[in-house]
Amino acid sequence: MIKIRKNRLYAVLFIFGSSLLATVLVLTALNQNINLFYSPSDLFASNPSPNKSIRVGGLVQKGSLIRIPDSLEINFTITDLKEEVTVNYSGILPDLFKEDAGVVATGYYDQINNSFQAFEILAKHDENYEPKEVVQALEGK
Amino acid sequence: MNKTFSNLKTFYHKLGSSPWFYKISGITIPYVALFSFLFLSIGIVWGVFFSPTDFKQGDVYRIIYMHVPAASVSQAIYYTMTVAAVVSMIWRMKMAGIFIKSMAPIGASFTFLALISGSIWGQPTWGTWWIWDARLTSTLVLFIFYIAIISLYSSFSEKKSADQAVSILTLVGAVNLPIIKKSVDWWNTLHQPASIKFTESSSISPEMLYPLIISIFGFYLVVLLSGLMAMRAEIAKREINKEWFKNY
What we know:
The structure holds two protein chains of two kinds.
Chain A: H1 3-30, H2 40-46, E1 54-60, E2 66-67, E3 73-79, E4 84-90, E5 102-110, E6 115-124, H3 132-140
Parallel strand pairs in A: 4-6
Antiparallel strand pairs in A: 1-3, 1-5, 2-3, 3-4, 5-6
Chain B: H1 2-15, H2 18-50, H3 64-91, H4 94-125, H5 134-154, H6 159-173, H7 176-186, H8 206-238, H9 243-246
């Protein structure tokens, strides 16, 4: 390689290396803040301020969903299979919200009662795609 | 071994020659157009009308046949632009500059398509059009890089300096690519991890996967087609007064 091209190669490596370093430093500094939500275990570990709105995510525990009659209010438990937190919410739910499925709730955490007052519920689905007929046939068995 | 290397070297030098590229692309474009139409229409029609309904999401999941291919090419285009940026910086090959200039608007369009189709998919399934999670945000950053590359290019009147400046910016933005890919594994996000896996079995059933792969292939062909056409137009624009172009 001619000398001038070698020098340009060093320039390329330097530019790429320094942008990589800058990005890694920023991401390391932000680390926890990049996560979209706390898992219930994280919640106990970090115990956030009750006046700050945060997100909690995990699975809707099977059998924990209670609908209050004649209202949009519901109660359910979010679990990460280690810890759990009770969520209270009133409003419209996304179509994919159900028991034993992923959920991300935004709201305020009350540490004393281990309860979470949510003002937004989002459904988190997984990466599995399966034909409806196949699943119904398997469940029918 | 030595022969293949020298063949590769000749090919590399030919790639750097605009008259050669102009001629070859003129011949290949009709074929690429035919195959991209075939793959894209088979993939989309099969996916939208004939693939089975998903057990969880129902029919809404069918937007996958547009969303995943668009997201895939939007990142792939940037990878190729990064290679071109390195070539342009080290060897000052003018075709590399033409490549970046031509591909940036195509990349921006597909990133936009990925963002919009994802948004339309997110509303009925997640319950929101947009969320600032790591995957969505890093894809938006990719889109902004494309826009920045396009506007930086147009702010120069001298093509040579434009090519060099744009190459540096492209190189800086390349850091974002692994972040997009790994964002769903490194942090917890609302976006789910990848369904198509290369090292283990995919978590999407085969009868849904086949049309998706055909559609992805179709999108890549469309990118190839529009890339060839845009590069030809850019060559014509830059070399309109050259002797070879007048005699073409």
